[in-house]
Specification:
The structure is a homodimer of 179-residue chains.
Chain A: H1 3-9, H2 24-35, E1 46-51, H3 54-65, E2 76-82, E3 86-88, E4 91-92, H4 94-111, H5 121-124, H6 127-136, E5 144-151, H7 166-169, E6 170-172
Antiparallel strand pairs in A: 1-2, 2-5, 3-4
């Protein structure tokens, strides 16, 4: 699968997953893809915890589930952590950093034949949920839990969202041009 | 090139570019890769202007150049715009959205044999620079200019940054585990 096909194929899957385990080798490939994302001023503010222990996974997904999380059937997951370290002076790029890392991981997940969904608001809208996940995974206070990616083989084909047309979001040389 | 090779190969290039033009077809492939990135609650907050008009390109890069921008020799570029539209309530994902779009475009640029560098702080640290670019490209006030990607064939092999080791940034099931 080339990069364009992979980008086209990726989508946010919100259905159930098959129980088929994710080999640790594949989980590592996904994590390494995340670690190789660029980071502002190379501060590498993103850290990643791969989760394939069923008990830990159940505990995390039940915390997220409180807010309507549907990925609880996934046999593995990725927990994304960020550190608020400035790129320079008081300029921070850590949101950009973990977002690029997540996108790399979503593409890696897709190319390996799995599905996922970028779960962020359901975690970050509650500092209590963030703290509970941090406690569960023994995460130090200088890291912030910002996201979770369920990983698994999808049971069904999920629904893809509609996209605005190219001409509504992209132009050449000048905003709104019809080149 | 598969996705893992592409992710491995991508890096921030800060040298000079060859003059070889970027076919519009390739610029479109890169832009479409960006538009296909996920966005929080599918709000599609990212917009993209592909630039291959030499005069406009020179004007933009000279604005960024004020702050030490090295990509002025690139024969094309991408200007990234964001709209501050909430995902829901007062929760915004637009930084995440454009970061995922930029990462997709950097991977597309890499797979097509070009190089680039994610330019953000040199633009966003100065609202004056942001406004000047917006004026130049006729961008309405509800869009914010947040990034620029030069695109071209690199003249030399650039220097890759060092990365922390896997065990410094990633673990399985619990923070700091040595699984």
């Amino acid at each position: 699968m080339d990069i364009f096909e992979c980008i086209q194929k990726r989508y946010s899957y919100r259905g159930s997953y098959m129980k088929t385990a994710i080999p640790r080798e594949n989980l590592e490939k996904i994590i390494r893809a995340g670690l190789l994302a660029p980071s502002g001023c190379n501060k590498q503010t993103t850290s990643i915890i791969g989760i394939d222990d069923q008990q830990i996974l159940d505990s995390i997904t039940s915390l997220i589930n409180k807010n309507g999380f549907t990925g609880k059937t996934a046999p593995a997951g990725i927990c994304i952590l960020t550190q608020e370290i400035p790129g320079y002076a008081d300029v921070y790029f850590n949101i950009q950093d973990y977002s690029a890392a997540i996108e790399n991981m979503l593409l890696a997940i897709t190319t390996l034949g799995y599905a996922s969904c970028w779960i962020e608001g359901q975690i970050t809208e509650s500092t209590e949920t963030q703290k509970q996940i941090a406690n569960l995974l023994n995460i130090p206070a200088d890291y912030i839990v910002v996201g979770f990616l369920p990983i698994g083989i999808p049971e069904n084909e999920g629904k893809r969202p509609s996209y605005k047309s190219f001409s509504q979001r992209a132009w050449y040389n000048t905003y709104g041009s019809d080149e």
